[in-house]
Every structure is written in C-alpha cells, then in structure tokens.
Amino acid sequence: MLRQNDLTPAPGAKHARKRVGRGLGSGHGRFSGRGQKGQKSRSGPGIHPYFEGGQLPLHRRLPGKRGFTNIFKTQYSVVNVGRLNAFDAGSVVGAEELISAGLVSSTMKPIKILGTGDLDRALTVKADGFSGTAREKILAAGGTVEVGSGTKAN
To answer: Which label site among 36, 97, 110, 116 has the fewest CB atoms less than 10 Å from its CB?
Structure first.
C-alpha cells in the first residue's frame, strides 16, 4: 500500500540551488554568472519587459485605441424595396419567399427591408425590421407591413 511518507519526486526533478559568489573554486565566483559590466550585472531591478533599448517602444509607436466595437450589435440580412418587384402583385413575402427568390441567403440573421429603389405593386411584406423609407414606399404602393417574420433569429 502506498503511503504519503513513501512518495518521492521523480529522479532529476529536483535540482540543488546554484550558490553564486562563493569563490573561484565553486565555478560561480567573481562575477557570479553575470558577465562583467553593464545594467544586467548590477543589483536591483533590471530592464522592464517592454524596454526596446532606447528605440521608441511599440506601445508609444501605435496610435491610441479609438472607440469600440459593440459585440452585441444585431447583424441584419438586408433587402432593398426595389428588389421586391420580383414578386407578383398581392403576394405575401416572408423569409421563405425571400430565400427561394435568392434575395436572402439564410434565416440565421434577422431580415430588414431598406428603402432603396421603387415598388410598383401591392405586397404583404413580413420581415424583422423596416426602415422608415421602406415602410412608406410599401404602404404607398398599396401593400402592408408586418414586423416579425418568424425567422430563427427572433
């Protein structure tokens, strides 16, 4: 049975401490393994890790970090109003119809309709978001707007 007092470190795992400055016969006398002169041979703290020998350091060469990136920002799949003319008048346009028409690649992102282009037919458009201009153009063409199309992103 193995007992705690029988445990020993693996051979070669423990090393004797190097005793420097104890005479020439020790092999670590005189300069104690530090070479001769210079900043690194002196006592006291050495050079800091980001010191670059007097060259302008990296943290001063780079411009300050400006602004930030919002990691919680909602990324939309966008469709312009003018592209909705691909559908027949009076049809209901939702996520599945947009995918089958090739206007949106996936329902993993919420879909937003933007106002670029003109709409010349009445459609019922279902999407997760509408710009103000897009909403006006769809309603002006005689269509209706429904927010929340039931995509996976909702």
So the answer is: 36
Q: Which residue has the tokens 């060259």?
A: 55
Q: In this predicted model, what pLDDT tens digit does every residue of 99-137 receive, in sequence order? A: 999 999 988 999 999 999 999 999 999 999 999 999 999
Distance CA 79, CA 118 (A): 13
Query: Could you give phi then psi for residue 131, rounded to 5 degrees?
Result: -75, 160
CA neighbours closer than 13 Å in the CB half-sphere of residue 85: 10
Of 89, 100, 72, nearest in space to 125 by CA: 89
Report all structural domains of the chain as residue ranges with CATH numbers, in order of start. 77-147 (3.100.10.10)
Q: Which amino acid appears at position 18 of this protein?
A: K
Phi, psi (rounded to 5 degrees) for 36? -100, -95
Contact 123, 138 (CB under 8 A): yes
In angstroms, what is the C-alpha Rg of the chain?
36
> Is residue 143 exposed (0-12), middle (13-18) or buried (19+ Cβ within 10 Å)?
buried
pTM of the entire predicted model: 0.56
